[in-house]
Specification:
Elements: E1 2-6, E2 9-14, E3 19-23, E4 28-35, E5 37-41, E6 46-50, E7 54-57, E8 63-68, E9 75-82, H1 84-94, E10 107-109, H2 113-125, H3 134-151, H4 156-159, H5 170-177, H6 184-190, H7 195-206, H8 210-227, H9 233-236, H10 245-256, H11 260-266
Antiparallel strand pairs: 1-2, 2-9, 3-8, 4-7, 4-9, 5-6, 5-8, 7-10
InterPro entries: AraC_XylS_family_regulators, ExsA-like_N, Homeodomain-like_sf, HTH-like, HTH_AraC, RmlC-like_jellyroll
Pfam family, one: HTH_18
Keywords: DNA-binding, Transcription, Transcription regulation
């Protein structure tokens, strides 16, 4: 995966095999897919984005992102992140406050002249040999916020919400999100706990360590998809939370006593 970075503006490129990452961004991120395919897997839904699609991913959202080249074209996208300090300054100048935070969910946008010209101007910056000056990057970030506000009248309730995750039901959260291969620090933060409190609460609920429980849940999910959905191991391991196919196959055989390919043959 190749990547060029100018402050909070990023050009991503995946030229060969699929690239997968587990994402919990600290910032709201506006993404424009230029070519290829990006699949986003969240707790209750999966999305596939292709050339021309534009989306806004809220901060603190657990998701698996799989980027793939398609039809001989690499995966390419532009991502603009909106950091809290940028948003705080922007909304302070506008003297806007929100009455009620919005539901933190992914938003998509139809292409229009404002967004097309915005991303076209950003793309040209990546042809520069020098870094983009900070003041120009700031202007582009502010421009992006202004465009979103002009095409989505409810986006203020998302972008101007600076609250942190509160303590939530740990068992319910983990049952919904076990397939995301995240460090325990991230799971702890998203459930409103310190790492020590997370580990203590987890053992009290599940009577085992987080890592053992996560591995078992991911293997059970993989087994179900192989046996019931007739999927291939290569289609399953990434979305089940495993980093590579060989590690998945080893863990699967150790747990069930047979390889995932054997299960597929039986099915």
């Amino acid at each position: 995966m190749a990547e060029s970075k100018y402050a909070e503006i990023v050009l991503s490129c995946v030229e060969e095999k699929p690239f997968k990452a587990e994402v919990v961004s600290e910032y709201h991120t506006l993404v424009h897919v230029l070519s290829g395919e990006m699949k986003m897997v969240q707790t209750d839904h999966s999305y596939v984005f292709t050339e021309g699609d534009i989306l806004l991913v809220p901060r603190n959202q657990l998701c698996a992102v799989i980027k793939r080249p398609t039809n001989g074209n690499p995966y390419k996208s532009i991502a603009v992140t909106f950091r809290p300090e940028r948003l705080t300054d922007y909304y302070a100048q506008k003297k806007i406050t929100i009455q009620q935070p919005s539901v933190q969910k992914l938003r998509t946008f139809a292409r229009n002249a404002l967004l097309d010209s915005y991303f076209s101007s950003i793309l040209s910056y990546f042809e520069m040999k020098s870094e983009l000056p900070d003041e120009i990057a700031l202007l582009k970030i502010q421009e992006g916020i202004s465009i979103l506000r002009s095409i989505d009248k409810e986006v203020d309730s998302l972008l101007a919400d600076f609250s942190e995750p509160g303590k939530i039901n740990l068992a319910e959260f983990m049952e919904k999100n076990f397939m995301f291969n995240m460090p325990l620090q991230k799971f702890s933060y998203l459930t409103g706990r310190s790492v020590a409190t997370f580990n203590r609460d987890f053992r009290k609920i599940f009577h085992t360590t987080p890592q053992r429980w996560l591995t078992q849940k991911r293997l059970e999910l993989s087994h179900y998809r192989l046996a019931e959905n007739k999927e291939k191991p290569a289609e399953v391991y990434l979305e089940a939370g495993f980093e590579n196919l060989s590690h998945f196959s080893f863990a699967f055989k150790k747990h069930f006593g047979y390889a995932p390919t054997e299960l597929r043959k039986e099915a």
